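Extended Data, panel c. Modelled sequence:
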Amino acid sequence: MLRLAAYCRVSTDKEEQKLSLENQRSYYAEYARENNFRLVRIYSDEGISGKQMRNRAGFLNMIEEGERGEFDILAVKDVSRFARNTCDFLTGIRRLKAVGIDVRFLGTNSSIFTDSEFILTIYAALAQQESENLSKRVIFGKTETARKGRVPNLIYGYDKVDNFTMIVNQYEGYNIRKVFLLYTENGLSLTAIADKFNAENVQTKLGGRWSAKTVGRIIRNPIYIGKLINHKTVTADFISGTRREVPENERFIHIRPELRIVSDEIFELANAILRDTDRGR
């Protein structure tokens, strides 16, 4: 009896996607029964994009175990589940076919059983183009909400109400003011402030420990004087996920007085000290 393995992937960890993953697993089990295959393993990646093979532990494990001869056939729902990157798609296919594994893409209307790399490349290119178009739509949507004043999802000093509204968290706001005062009036370094907060068991927004880098980010962030700056970076390459900085004159600046925690004077003083410190290094 031929040994069947299957690969599943969903790009987010939302509940509806998790349900999709379970449905895929049930489908492969039924496919094995109908074709008299022995289902030996179902590999999966949850909440992982198909754009980069190196980030997909389940996929890489599947390739390695296939090369060790642990299954004879690999079933995948469709080409886009296997990869949305043409280069990674061909690399994976070639590695599996080199050890004699029959790779089958089982669509809703038809199945793709072919040894033609040319045909498979066309399917892979279409999957990559679909992913690129989706990425462009997502980027457009994020750009538009940034233009309208979208607030950060998580930032120390505030509680998010909705995509465009935050309110000052009084306890965290107190600690923000303390950071600026310790830095400008007490002359403590970024590291000394972080050490002081850690000694006093003050936690970061995510419940972690403070570092000099965390304190420096707070001092540099104009959100604390009520200036929200969006569209600071954009995606340069949707496959690699690399980003580039947007020129300052192209960024979206929103003046939000209700978000102010410190005065302009103490903010400018703190940043002047920080610049002098950086130049002295």
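Residues 75 and 280 are 60 Å apart (CA to CA). This feature is highlighted in the accompanying rendering.
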